[in-house]
Design a protein that fits this description.
The complex is a heterodimer of chains A (627) and B (230).
Chain A (H helix, E strand, L loop, with lengths): L1 H13 L1 H38 L5 E5 L7 H9 L3 E14 L2 E8 L9 E6 L12 E6 L13 E9 L2 E16 L27 E6 L5 H6 L4 E6 L8 H15 L7 E5 L4 H19 L1 H22 L1 H10 L3 H39 L15 H27 L3 H5 L16 H4 L4 H12 L1 H32 L7 H34 L1 H9 L4 H38 L9 H27 L3 H5 L4
Parallel strand pairs in A: 3-8, 5-7
Antiparallel strand pairs in A: 1-9, 1-10, 2-3, 2-9, 4-7, 5-8, 6-7
Chain B lengths: L1 E11 L2 E12 L5 E5 L6 H8 L7 E6 L2 E2 L5 H11 E4 L11 H9 L8 H7 L15 H14 L4 E5 L7 H16 L4 E6 L10 E6 L2 E7 L12
Parallel strand pairs in B: 3-8, 3-9, 6-7, 7-8
Antiparallel strand pairs in B: 1-2, 1-4, 4-5, 9-10
Helix pairs in contact in B: 3-5, 4-5, 5-6
Classes of the chains: A alpha+beta (627), B alpha/beta (230).
């Protein structure tokens, strides 16, 4: 068995290219699957850090009736089980000279819940102020919200409240803060009523100002009652879990029942734009991470099949020798399974090691355009998707390899000893329709006949091209959908990072197409080196010889890509619905064209890469031996 | 055709093998030349040089007044395309093309080629024209291969062990087709073989050993292939 083991080592040495190709395909797939698996969790963890740092309230109680909250109300809330912290303050939106200002008035420096982070400047110093000399801090700006600079004096003319005209306010900005409740670039809906008491729709907050109650002139302290109570619960549930939602809803009911009917309305985090958006968004990524692996399983199985089949084909005579020497079949099977196992296992391992930390690291900063995150936190939750997928790919690949080896072992050693005879040519169906067949140029006739002669190659090439079209259209489609959603305010920049994912998908699809088509064409050239040599002897130039094989691949890929387009549209429509992101109608017609051209061009490029291989076919070597 | 100091060396690493060693000879147009020698003597290498399938290392090889030893790869391809017809031991037909199409594959490259159907009829394959190689016997396949060489209407027909894979009777039929090509069509036919019985059928005989010519003689009275036994 020592010598047998030597042949195993030799196999690895001679087929290092195939080994690496298999490793790379699996690596790509698992890196993407594994990375996508942990992405939503890393994303949520990173996001929630700001929630936790700011000690965001689990519940906000809004006084709807207008009398405001008092200290005894706070005490009542505190009595409720699990309530650990409470705070109250004034919050209201005002429209002044065309802009909407949101005012928070409370003990801004000493908030237990919904803490502010000072980004620039300082909080106002505590002293008695007049209308003319008020001080405050302002929320930092983002894409949809404006802000002031430290030291700037803001004049708000004809400020009125509850029917009282209070005249002009002059507020000096002493600092810029960040509130974790405004953790997104999304517009914040204004909460205002018009003169008739109707809720104003489609108005957004332009500025958010925070003032200290103790600094205000006495009149204000009297007018600006506390409208909000922030409640922090001793929750043992994770954010975004159903248990948490149920628990919070239960507590809201309890809290609301403390007050007179219709006087108080309880809001959960689900009513917070950032929190809700995050949930919606991570859910989409999670859906992608469940959906895409199916493709990669298919791709890996296909590549593995091609590589192992080719490997065994090359080792045909070695296989024959084993069998004639009486090497047990199980050992022969072991040899090829080992190749498959090691390459796939290595690919899975590297894929997990590379994809799981790197994909979130690349994508998370892109999310920062949408959500403010104080650093990125890498979560291993969700890594199970990558691990289960690795196991699945390993099992599928081993099954495919086993099938391939066993089909060879069925032959007798004597048959295996001879090189496999080339497939005989025969007329194809098209030839029975003379008016279609006759006008086809001679060289194309030969190519078309060849396409049908090598059925296995035809099926594999077609499947790869169709698969590639599906993936590329998904990728480009995702981009289109993102583009169309840029105009939609709810998503806005969310879409831009989807664009990044779409790039990754397209790149992946193209590289996989290159590897698969390369293997197939390479296999085709080796199998038909005798035919190529004959052409060379007859006086065909290298270019003409390469056209002989490449024409087949190009015809196959051009037709398969065409067949692939409606399939891709169907899959994309399903995928978009499944992910809950976009619509197939948003995919531009030019994207179909682009997908088609990209896939066919990729095939063409592979052919160009393989040209030297055709050139290298040696006339003498191939002609003098009998196949 | 005239070869002068024709040499072919193969270099692999530190080793140098001289397969054809400073060979000089002359072949007249329409001559049937038999090149014999044991295997490994260099006769196939010589055939490859004459056929433009390999580059000459040194010396000259004049064909129709041009020195093909100086040709680059592309020129050699054009030379094979226009001047030479090949007949191989294993026929080397394209399996996906019918007999007729196999000939078309060769004739469509050259202006002034003969009609494929006529040539196939001439080699006795009128009824087999639309058959694929796998549907033909070895002898029939070799006839297609000869028809392919003839149809191009080349000056030279090169045959490497043309009967090597055929039985005695079929082999004789093939050889008589080849000698007809020389005698009737006035082609220069060069047959490389290790079967020395065939020497009597040629107008000209060259014996090769260790890459060198050991005998070069004309045969004023070539025997009819029917009268040769082996």
């Amino acid at each position: 068995m020592k010598t047998f083991n030597k042949t195993i080592r030799k196999m690895f040495k001679h087929n290092i290219g195939r080994f690496v190709a298999n490793v790379l395909i699996v690596l790509f797939s698992i890196a993407l699957i594994g990375g996508l698996g942990v992405l939503p969790y890393s994303f949520v963890d990173s996001f929630l850090v700001t929630y936790k740092e700011g000690n965001c309230p689990d519940i906000i109680l809004k006084n709807v009736e207008g009398s405001g909250f008092f200290d005894e109300d706070l005490e009542k809330v505190r009595e409720i089980e699990d309530v650990v912290q409470v705070d109250k303050f004034f919050m209201a939106d005002f429209k002044i000279q065309g802009n909407i200002y949101r005012f928070y008035i409370g003990d801004m420096r000493n908030l237990d819940i919904g803490k502010l982070t000072l980004k620039e400047g300082n909080y106002p110093e505590k002293r008695e102020l007049t209308f003319e000399t008020m001080e405050g801090v302002v929320e930092e700006k983002n894409l949809n919200r404006r802000s002031y600079e430290v030291g700037q004096q803001v004049t708000l003319k004809d400020f009125s409240m509850g029917g009282f005209v209070l005249g002009d306010l002059k507020i000096t900005i002493t600092g810029i803060v960040s509130n974790s409740m405004y953790n997104t670039v999304q517009r914040e809906n204004a909460q205002m009523q018009d003169e008739n008491g109707n809720v104003v729709e489609d108005e957004y907050v332009d500025y958010i100002l925070y003032l200290d109650r103790e600094n205000l002139p006495l009149l204000y302290q009297y007018l600006m009652i506390d409208t909000d109570i922030y409640v922090k619960l001793n929750s043992k549930y994770d954010y975004y879990s159903k248990d948490y939602d149920d628990y919070v809803q239960k507590k809201i009911k309890e809290l609301e029942s403390l007050f007179e009917e219709d006087m108080v309305k309880g809001l959960s985090l689900n009513e917070n734009v950032a929190y809700a958006l995050y949930d919606n968004y991570t859910q989409k990524i999670r859906n992608i991470s469940y959906f895409f692996p199916i493709f990669f399983f298919a791709v890996c199985a296909l590549v593995n099949l091609i590589i192992i089949t080719r490997l065994i084909k090359d080792e045909r005579s070695i296989l024959a020798t084993y069998l004639s020497l009486g090497v047990p079949k199980s050992r022969v099977v072991f040899k090829y399974m080992l190749f498959s196992f090691l390459s796939v296992a290595l690919g899975c391992l590297l894929g997990l090691l590379i994809g799981v930390p790197i994909l979130p690291a690349v994508v998370l900063p892109a999310y920062n355009a949408v959500f403010k995150m104080n650093g990125y936190f890498f979560s291993l939750k969700g890594v199970s998707i990558g691990i289960y997928s690795s196991i699945a790919i390993l099992v599928i690949s081993l099954a495919v390899s086993l099938g391939s080896v066993l089909s060879y072992l069925r032959e007798s050693p004597a048959v295996l000893m001879q090189a496999k005879a080339p497939k005989a040519g025969k007329k194809i169906l098209l030839e029975r329709i003379p008016f279609l067949w006759k006008p086809i140029p001679f060289s194309f006739k030969s190519s078309i006949r060849n396409i049908f002669r090598q059925k296995k190659n035809l099926v594999l090439t077609s499947l790869s091209v169709i698969g590639s079209v599906v993936l590329v259209l998904l990728g480009i489609g995702l981009f289109d959908v993102s583009e169309s959603l840029v105009h939609d305010e709810l998503f806005g920049n969310v879409a831009s990072s989807m664009g990044l994912i779409s790039m990754v998908v397209v790149l992946f699809a193209v590289s996989i197409t290159i590897v698969i088509i390369y293997s197939l064409v390479n296999m085709n050239i080796s199998e038909r080196s005798r035919e190529l040599a004959t052409l060379k002897v007859l006086g065909y130039h290298d270019i003409e010889c390469s056209l002989y094989t490449f024409r087949e691949v190009m015809i196959t890929s051009a037709i398969s890509a065409l067949i692939g387009l409606p399939i891709a549209a169907f899959v994309a429509a399903f995928a978009f619905r499944y992910i809950g992101f976009g619509d197939i109608k948003d995919v531009k017609w030019t994207s179909y064209l682009l997908t088609y051209l990209l896939v066919v061009l990729t095939t063409a490029i592979v052919n160009v890469i393989l040209y030297p291989k055709v050139k290298a076919v040696n006339m003498n070597d191939s002609l003098k031996v009998l196949d | 055709m005239r070869a002068k100091q024709l040499t072919k060396e193969f270099v692999s690493g530190q080793n140098k093998v001289i397969a054809v060693n400073h060979i000089s000879f002359e072949v007249e147009e329409g001559e049937l030349l038999i090149i014999v020698g044991p295997s490994g003597a260099g006769k196939s290498t010589l055939l490859n040089l004459i056929g433009g399938m390999d580059k000459v290392t040194s010396g000259s090889l004049m064909v129709k007044g041009k020195d093909i030893a100086l040709y680059n790869k592309k020129m050699l391809t054009d030379y094979r395309r226009n001047e030479v017809g090949f007949v191989f031991q294993f026929y080397n037909l394209m399996p996906n093309l019918t007999a007729k199409e196999n000939i078309e594959l060769s004739t469509e490259l050259k202006k002034g080629a003969l009609d494929p159907e006529e040539v196939l009829t001439a080699v006795g394959l009128k009824d087999r024209m639309n058959n694929f190689p796998s549907q033909l016997s070895g002898g029939e396949q070799q006839r297609v291969s000869i028809a392919r060489a003839l149809a191009k209407n080349p000056g030279i027909i090169l045959c490497d062990e043309p009967t090597g894979a055929l039985d005695y009777v079929t082999g004789k039929e093939i050889l008589s087709l080849l000698s007809d090509a020389a005698r009737k069509e006035k082609k220069t036919v060069i047959i490389v073989t290790h079967n020395s019985a065939l020497t009597e059928m040629g107008d000209h005989l060259i014996k090769i050993k260790n890459g060198e010519i050991v005998l070069d003689e004309k045969n004023p009275n070539p025997k009819d292939i029917k009268d040769i036994e082996w």
